[in-house]
Amino acid sequence: MRVFLTGATGFIGSHIVPELLARGHEVLGLTRSDDGARRLEAAGVDVHRGDLERPETLASGAAAADAVIHCAFDHNFATFLDNTKKDERVIAAMGEALAGTEKPILITSGVGTGTPLNGGEAMEDVLNPRHANPRIATELAGAALIARRIDVRTIRLPQVHDTTRAGLITPLIAEARRAGAIAYVGEGNTRWAAAHVSDVARLYVLALENGEPGARYNASVEEGVSARAIAEAIGEGSGLPVRSVDGGEVERYFGWMAPFAALDMAASSAWTRARLAWEPCGPDLLTDLAAMDYSAFV
């Protein structure tokens, strides 16, 4: 297939590229810069110019391909809510280009949107529109396309990591540097699901090749790593003191991330593994946190 890949030069997208090429697919990669174009060309990827601010440029990329993997997202958390609305517009524009075809589009969400209303691990058959993560907008945009009989498949991401980045944990480290300590709330029992970036990239390709229209896939390898274990690993690697905080102290230590501090974002991937024969083999989160170069976060 000729696959239009948004976010092709990003953290996850740059790992999806070699997975697609190794399995005989052609890749049309989105970029907005000359540097990005050079990197894509060097990787054997055809270049498509465009950006998230101009949804029509992504729509034309979708129209020029046999399938779409959409993993681009504006990660400026200062404007997070606006960025989820931007994602809605982009998904709608690409969906319009795919209407009336059988071309699949894989969109990217977070595992938290599958958390049941009464709590517990996120599940693939659950869509919780009341979840605190504004990125629920992505899945609602996907649902609108599904209602139009467009082949939408959703990849729900946990904390995706290697030794350079780790999802929301990366900005958490930056906030800890600012505050002078790495913190967890209360006893630190809340959990965040996690997966190595290589395993996540492989899942996207499996969902492209063998996925089902309308399905949601949880990309969680570890169902839940405790906040305390994460904080202690960061403290060990960075030399920062580790503290339990409550109440008014949460905002001081977590900054803009305070709303995420006490969220339990554990997620099962049993259904995903069974349906796609996904067999993760990458390092676990704490192993990568132990090997991370924390001087990069100064």
- What is the mean pLDDT? 95
The percentage of residues in β strands lies in 15-25%
What is the strand tally? 12
Describe the sheet with the most strands. 7 strands, parallel
Number of helices: 12
Alpha-carbon Rg, integer: 19 Å
Quaternary class:
single chain
Given as residue ranges, the uncertain stretches (5+ residues, pLDDT < 50) are none
Shape descriptor reads: globular
**Order of the strands making up the biggest sheet:** 3-2-1-4-5-6-10
Percent helix, as a range, is 25-40%
Q: Pairing-aware structural class of the strands and helices?
A: alpha/beta
In N-to-C order, the SSE pattern is EHEHEHEHEHEEHEEHEEHEHHHH
Q: Give the termini distance in whole angstroms.
A: 43 Å
Task: Summarize the structure in words.
By secondary structure, the protein is of the alpha/beta class. 40% of the residues lie in helices and 19% in strands. The chain has helices at 13-22, 34-42, 55-63, 80-98, 136-146, 169-179, 197-210, 227-238, 249-254, 258-261, 270-276, 285-291, and strands at residues 2-6, 26-31, 46-49, 67-70, 105-110, 152-157, 159-161, 182-185, 191-196, 216-218, 222-226, 242-245. The strands form 3 sheets. It has a 7-stranded parallel sheet, sandwiched between helices. The protein is globular and about 55 Å long.
Summarize the structure.
The protein has 298 residues and is an alpha/beta fold. It has helices at 13-22, 34-42, 55-63, 80-98, 136-146, 169-179, 197-210, 227-238, 249-254, 258-261, 270-276, 285-291; strands at 2-6, 26-31, 46-49, 67-70, 105-110, 152-157, 159-161, 182-185, 191-196, 216-218, 222-226, 242-245.
